[in-house]
């Protein structure tokens, strides 16, 4: 089973239909274990019970960057290998990545209130994650601005790759900006080394969230494929109606059937 | 080479003539700077402290405003298809177009900076620092903005969408541009470090911009 075997959407749908229940089950079990472990993790000597926000916050923040990585690989698939499902993968990943980024910002903000005394601070990390969130939103706006999926796919692929090059630059420049304007403030996340009693639940939660992403991503890809099929069926029907009402609409029919084949 | 220089000369000439819209950017820059005292109050000390930031923001918005004309006009009259099909590599043609755009729309902003600095109560050193950082930084704005312009022309959507896509990419340029001018004015950081990074950003975007724009034109125009 190679990647190219999945190029056929029907085969992809059949395979994911078999895999998805298992993935969903594994996600639920791991999430339950992770939540149980993090609920019974000891309180931090400084932060008290609020340290438990970490078990939600850190996996979200980790995935917010991981999803952009997945989208970059998918964009390479669109532009270089012309894999037919690559743009479906890229499109389906964007809203999920935006959601993870938003949750990372939200939980971080809720954690920041008791710890730092403020919901928002123009800290380097917070700012660069906020910019990442803005870039996700811009990418989603680009997807929504164009009706033709294949045209939007290539534009979004270029933007995703440019973003992948730019994100580290933005990250470093924001770090630099922060050190310029804001001398050492009180923001040190817990301790630098995590105790085992925190580390193990955190790792379980990270794996659970990754599985959650894979599950949601595959499900969203299935939805996207079905949505495109519906779209090309509608277009075929529309062109059939147009064909019966006026002569010389054959070329349109041909276009529509070509599109149906592509989807 | 002659083809590229001809392209540059043609674009500059079009931009400077009636309907080209290069000088609109300067007018917009002036308007943004004039609006600032109304927003923050006519306090000269405060204005001179905020001056570099205001000038940089104004220049950023002004260069963004003129960017969506970069490929749009050529696409409308069909010459973009000729450029795409010509024997000159599309990457070089994109770079030439961006260079022409910077000459016609970016340089006037820098020339206007001393006058606007006067309005914001900036002294000679501060004005010079802002003009110098703009000179080093605006090519980066043009060359990264070109990616957005190329995307906009292939999607037939300009304006706001392009601004949403391009503005996050220009954050590093803004950070280091303002940092370098502040370093020159009040210190205590050295001017050299942020200024070199600003130049580096411009050089990087000089490489990435044409390739990304050419890729999106090539994939999008067919």
Topology:
The complex is a heterodimer of chains A (263) and B (222).
Chain A lengths: L8 H31 L14 H28 L4 H31 L7 H22 L3 H33 L14 H50 L4 H13 L1
Chain B lengths: L1 H15 L5 H19 L3 H24 L1 H9 L1 H7 L4 H30 L4 H32 L4 H10 L1 H16 L5 H29 L2
Structure commentary:
The complex is a heterodimer of chains A (263) and B (222). Helices cover 79% and strands 0% of the residues of chain A. Chain A has helices at 9-39, 54-81, 86-116, 124-145, 149-181, 196-245, 250-262. Mean pLDDT of chain A is 80; it is low at 181-192. Chain B has one domain (2-220). Chain B is built from ten helices and no strands. The radius of gyration of chain B is 18 Å and the shape is elongated. The A-B interface holds A 79, 131, 134-135, 137-138, 141-142, 145-146, 151-152, 154-155, 157-159, 161-163, 165-166, 169-170, 173-174, 176-177, 180 and B 144, 147, 150-151, 154-155, 157, 161, 164-165, 168-169, 171-172, 175-176, 179, 189, 194, 197, 201, 204, 208, 212, 215-216, 219-220.
Mean of residue pLDDT values of chain B: 86
The SSE string of chain B, one letter per element, is: HHHHHHHHHH
Strand content of chain A is: under 5%
Give the N-terminus to C-terminus distance of chain A in angstroms. 21 Å
The string of secondary-structure elements of chain A, in order, is HHHHHHH
Q: Mind telling me the C-alpha Rg of chain B? A: 18 Å
Number of distinct beta strands of chain B: 0
Mean pLDDT of chain A: 80
User: How much helix, percentage-wise, in residues of chain B?
Assistant: over 70%
**Multimerization status:** heterodimer
Sequence stretches where pLDDT stays below 50 over 5 or more residues of chain A: 181-192
Beta content of chain B:
under 5%
Distance between the termini of chain B: 26 Å
Total strand segments of chain A: 0
- For the report, how would you describe the main beta sheet of chain B? none
Give start-end ranges of low-pLDDT stretches of chain B.
Answer: none
Radius of gyration of chain A: 22 Å
- The geometry of chain B reads as elongated
Helix/strand-derived category of chain A reads mainly alpha
């Amino acid at each position: 089973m190679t990647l190219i075997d999945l190029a056929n959407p029907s085969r992809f749908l059949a395979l994911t239909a078999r895999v998805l229940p298992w993935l969903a089950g594994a996600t639920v079990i791991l999430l339950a274990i992770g939540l149980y472990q993090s609920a019974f993790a000891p309180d931090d000597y400084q932060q008290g019970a609020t340290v438990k926000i970490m078990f939600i916050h850190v996996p979200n923040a980790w995935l917010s960057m991981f999803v952009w990585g997945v989208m970059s690989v998918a964009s390479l698939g669109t532009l270089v290998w012309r894999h037919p499902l690559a743009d479906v993968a890229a499109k389906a990943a964007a809203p999920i990545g935006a959601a993870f980024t938003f949750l990372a910002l939200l939980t971080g903000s809720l954690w920041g209130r008791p710890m730092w005394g403020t919901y928002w601070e123009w800290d380097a990390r917070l700012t660069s994650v906020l910019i990442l969130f803005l870039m996700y939103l811009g990418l989603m706006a680009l997807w929504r601005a164009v009706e033709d999926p294949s045209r939007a796919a290539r534009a979004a692929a270029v933007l995703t790759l440019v973003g992948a090059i730019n994100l580290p630059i933005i990250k470093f420049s924001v770090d630099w900006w922060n050190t310029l304007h804001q001398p050492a403030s009180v923001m040190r996340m817990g301790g630098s080394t995590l105790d085992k009693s925190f580390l193990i639940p955190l790792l379980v939660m990270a794996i659970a969230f990754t599985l959650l992403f894979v599950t949601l991503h595959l499900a969203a890809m299935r939805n996207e494929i079905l949505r495109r099929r519906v779209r090309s069926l509608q277009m075929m029907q529309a062109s059939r109606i147009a064909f019966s009402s006026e002569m010389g609409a054959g070329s349109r029919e041909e276009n529509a059937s070509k599109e149906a084949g592509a989807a | 080479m002659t083809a590229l220089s001809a392209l540059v000369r043609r674009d500059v000439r079009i931009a400077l003539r009636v309907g080209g819209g290069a000088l609109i950017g300067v007018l917009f820059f002036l308007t943004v700077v004039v609006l600032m005292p109304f927003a923050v109050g006519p306090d000269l000390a405060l204005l001179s402290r905020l001056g570099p930031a205001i000038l940089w923001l104004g220049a950023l918005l002004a260069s963004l405003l003129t960017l969506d004309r970069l490929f749009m006009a050529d696409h409308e009259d069909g010459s973009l298809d000729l450029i795409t099909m010509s024997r000159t590599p599309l990457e070089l043609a994109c770079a030439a177009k961006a260079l022409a755009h910077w000459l016609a729309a970016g340089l006037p902003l820098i020339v206007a900076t001393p006058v606007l600095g006067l309005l914001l109560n900036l002294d000679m050193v501060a004005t010079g620092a802002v003009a110098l950082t703009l000179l080093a930084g605006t090519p980066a704005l043009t060359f990264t903005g070109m990616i957005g312009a190329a995307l906009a022309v292939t999607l037939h959507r300009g304006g706001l969408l392009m601004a949403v896509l391009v503005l996050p990419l220009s954050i590093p340029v803004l950070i280091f541009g303002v940092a370098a001018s502040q370093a020159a004015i009040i210190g205590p950081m050295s001017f050299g470090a942020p200024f070199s990074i600003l130049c580096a950003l411009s050089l990087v975007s000089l490489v990435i911009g044409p390739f990304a724009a050419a890729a999106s034109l090539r994939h999008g125009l067919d």
